[in-house]
Amino acid sequence: MNTKFKQHLLLFAGTILYSVYAALLLTPSKIGTGGILGIALCLNKLFNFKIGLTSIVLNVPLFIFGFKLLGKKFALKSAIIVLISSLLMDSMNTLLPNFSVLPINDKLTSAIFCGVTSGIAMAMLFMSGGSTGGLDISAKVFKNKFKSIQLSHILLFQDFCVYVFVGIVLGVHSVLYALIMSFIRSKTIDAVQEGMSSSRQCIIICNNYEKIVERVKNELGRGVTVLDAVGGYSHNNKKFIYVVIQKHQFSALNLIIKDIDPLAFVAISPVNNILGNYKQTSLSL
């Protein structure tokens, strides 16, 4: 399965799941949220505007002003995601007349479930190379005009304004549950990245390094770096092997090391970003 097909598949699945989250889970539960969707929920409450259509209307000027900053490819994918998901939000009940999700009486349970669902959906969309649009675009536009202001401060101010609006329209409790949902969403996105596409950097200090290097290259298809090392306690000369693998390759690497040098010292830690000649066998955020 090639990378482009994976990206299109994730884009399609993420868009559908995000629409389900917004239309069938979030809206019936009457829990607020941040960003454009939070504003759309408030306008729906005040004026009965359709949530999806409102999201499109609010996103259009953001994409127009932020097109150059986003880049053509990213902007196009994000625009498609916003358009399709917004249309599905307003037509979900019509498309699925026999499927309905009743609001859960326990708001905390609703917030947790909404956070997990939206987190999975957004992780898929990020990995497909797009986004749900919204106020992230406006933050980049402001940052481009006022370079002295930090992007994080702009995002924080925007979120504060939206949550104040949500609190006025939907009530303070909606904001509290929205914050819980936002926290769970961020943790879910991290968990999806960790589970699907994370890499590990491995430090192996051993004696019989030639066979380990050979098997790592042949069986895992990974390049390695070998350095000279001296034990601080024993003062013995050893070899320091550095290799970056993906998470699903760890078991195979562990078997290789145990088979060749069971007494080898191995330290493993996560890697967030990798630049250079590194073959990624799964998509990453």
Note the main attributes of this structure:
Alpha-Beta Plaits; elongated; 10 helices; alpha+beta
Q: How would you characterize the overall build of this protein?
A:
By secondary structure, the chain is α+β, with helices and mostly antiparallel strands. The protein has two domains: 3-196, no CATH class; 198-271, 2-Layer Sandwich (Alpha-Beta Plaits), CATH 3.30.70.120. The chain has ten helices and four strands; from the N terminus they run ααααααααβαββαβ. Strands 2-3-1-4 form a four-stranded antiparallel sheet, covered by helices on one side. Strand 2 (225-230) and strand 3 form a beta hairpin. Helix 3 packs antiparallel against helix 4 (72-95). The longest helix has 27 residues, at 3-29. It is elongated and about 75 Å long. The model has no long low-confidence stretch (mean pLDDT 85).
First-last Cα distance: 18 Å
Q: What would you call the shape?
A: elongated
User: What is the total number of structural domains?
Assistant: 2
Main sheet summary = 4 strands, antiparallel
Strand content: 5-15%
Q: What is the H/E order?
A: HHHHHHHHEHEEHE
Number of beta strands: 4
Topology, pairings included?
Layout: H1 3-29, H2 35-47, H3 51-70, H4 72-95, H5 107-127, H6 135-145, H7 151-170, H8 172-197, E1 199-206, H9 209-220, E2 225-230, E3 237-246, H10 250-260, E4 265-271
